Amino acid sequence: xxxxxxxxxxxxxxxxxxxxxxxxxxxxxxxxxxxxxxxxxxxxxxxxxxxxxxxxxxxxxxxxxxxxxxxxxxxxxxxxxxxxxxxxxxxxxxxxxxxxxxxxxxxxxxxxxxxxxxxxxxxxxxxxxxxxxxxxxxxxxxxxxxxxxxxxxxxxxxxxxxxxxxxxxxxxxxxxxxxxxxxxxxxxxxxxxxxxxxxxxxxxxxxxxxxxxxxxxxxxxxxxxxxxxxxxxxxxxxxxxxxxxx
Length: 246
Hints:
Blueprint: E1 2-4, E2 9-11, H1 18-32, H2 42-53, H3 58-68, H4 72-79, E3 93-98, H5 101-119, E4 132-137, E5 149-151, E6 154-156, H6 161-173, H7 189-196, H8 216-224
Parallel strand pairs: 3-4
Antiparallel strand pairs: 1-2, 3-5, 5-6
Helix pairs in contact: 1-2, 2-3, 2-7, 3-4, 5-6
């Protein structure tokens, strides 16, 4: 396959060869079998094709449509709605800086600005070596460790501009990089996409899963002997009868 500009043709390697399609069809059948209705498998199928080429292309969307018996327009509507699906080629490592309210106040905006200058990238752009794609995200769901940076959906907590710049430098150099919580090493963007498609890499239980502020409430409850109410025997409020508590 090739695309042409005014000067030179640009060769684009074909990803969805007959061999690749045959292999992906087997994975697709396994994914679809998990759902009562085939079209419900669209989200993991999009992750599956993303794991093959690093983004969701028109060919990838067409593959999903063929597997589910739905239109290309229906697939495109979903693929372009969710930000976890790349629409263009990107780097091996997606570096997402949380710039939502708490992280921004705690330094997220400063970190994002520092990384844009350090890498000479705008939001959504990729380094020339194909290693790092930089983006700001609205929430990394880790407010208790703000400011937070995620790399391929793994947490890097309590970041500063200096630690974030060291992080992206290490990623580009191929150094061993370990998330703050979770597995002891990072997988690539394609590997992470395959996990999100529902194919377990056996690493979900690695490392620390919760720590520090996330456990503060649990520790207070333990010290005070507090327990959650029995959902089958909830107390009634003064304005409720027995039926209202059920």
